[in-house]
Amino acid sequence: MTETTTPDPSVPSTTPAGDLPPSKPRALWHHRDFRHLWAGDAFGQLGAQFTGLALPVLAVGVLQATEWQMGVLSAANMAAFLLIGLPAGAWVDRMRKRSVLITADLVRALILAGVVVAALTGTASMPLLYVAGLLLGSATVFFDVAHQSYVPTLVGIDHVVEGNAKLQATASVAQVAGPAAAGVLLRFVTSGALIAFNAVTYLLSALFVARIAHRETLPPREDRRPLVVEIREGLSFVVRQPLLRRMVACTALGNLAFGILSALEALYILRDLDLGEAALGTIFSAASVGALLGALVGRKAAEWIGEARLVPVSALAMGLPIALVPLASVLPLPPMVTLIAGLGLTFMMVVVYNIATVSFRQRLCPPRLLGRMNASVRFIVWGTMPFGGLLGGWLGSAFGVVPALWIAAIGTLLAALPVVISPLWSMTTLPTAADAEAETEPPE
């Protein structure tokens, strides 16, 4: 639905009828349904940031989790992307997106409420957090897929860029403000109370989305094709494109290494460095500023370096500053400063890399395959993260947290090899959808 500016019939026109200018689409500030989606997204993004901090703090501070247990928790949080990431896109396409969003929010609120009750009654345990993480991840998979698919339907094709920009800005603000707010709250409340507040944010998200008046028309059942056929077509496109295949390999390997880091970073900061829960929130919040900087310089970097060369350059660049994370335990600098610098620079280059590779994917893929291609890529590149979490837990238990972080840093650097050893260095521009169609369509 696209709202347009309409002339006031009470005001006489001074423009000849034949010369009337076309009406211009109004900004999305005036779009009632989008405002509700935007508000719901803001609360959902804030809730996601609180969850990412509160559950590890509960595990380390209250349940005294070991390195292996933190690895399993990290894997459980991401396992849904591996287990249901591929079919989720096709399933969501067969359902009303508004209903999926509301249901996902309510499920997440209910799960967190159960964790709060367990924490208050002293029955919380690591197995309970594993199950909660798995269920939260599953609901998030459906929410994310439905959210991305709902925006064009809700606002119309003319407002897609504006709508995505506003939602992305909200996500960036939440990434910066969320951990800091959670860290401040943890000075005064327990991790269980923070999780309760987190559940309320999901309820508010569901409330705003429920106020959306727009109703979708589902495609006829007879137009559906077998789920396996649609999944196979998307995977086939990804595998058969040489440059895309290299980028997917780079991202998947990088996420495997990041999975090791994610499993141990809270344990490292809270227990090994003994910086405290408030410091943990401050570190993540300050480092997230790097992601904002990456979003600002990404387009300019592509113009300066060339969109093709930017892929290997940014892949290498994100693997270097991450070494500051394990170095924070030995450098003669305040550990908080070292961690913020290392994570901030890494986040900045991750965003630059993502801008380059996602833009390439969107241009390369024919529109008819775009949804299935994105689902296939997400399945591959995010599917490695649960294995990274388990690997991080095992490495931390077997060799210690700091050696495991060094392995994560080296692994991030080595992950760049698929795009570093590639034709991208000698290219300036990247192929388009017309080139992809020529490669993927069978000869007549």
TrEMBL record:
The keyword Transmembrane helix applies. It is found in: Cell membrane. The chain crosses the membrane at residues 42-65, 71-92, 195-214, 247-269, 275-298, 310-331, 337-356, 377-395, 401-421. It comes from the Bacteria. Gene3D superfamilies: MFS general substrate transporter like domains (1.20.1250.20). Residues 243-444 form the Major facilitator superfamily (MFS) profile domain. Pfam families: MFS_1. Residues 1-25 are annotated as: Disordered. Its main location: membrane. Keywords: Cell membrane, Membrane, Transmembrane, Transmembrane helix. Residues 1-16 have a biased composition (Low complexity). This is MFS transporter. It comes from Occultella glacieicola.
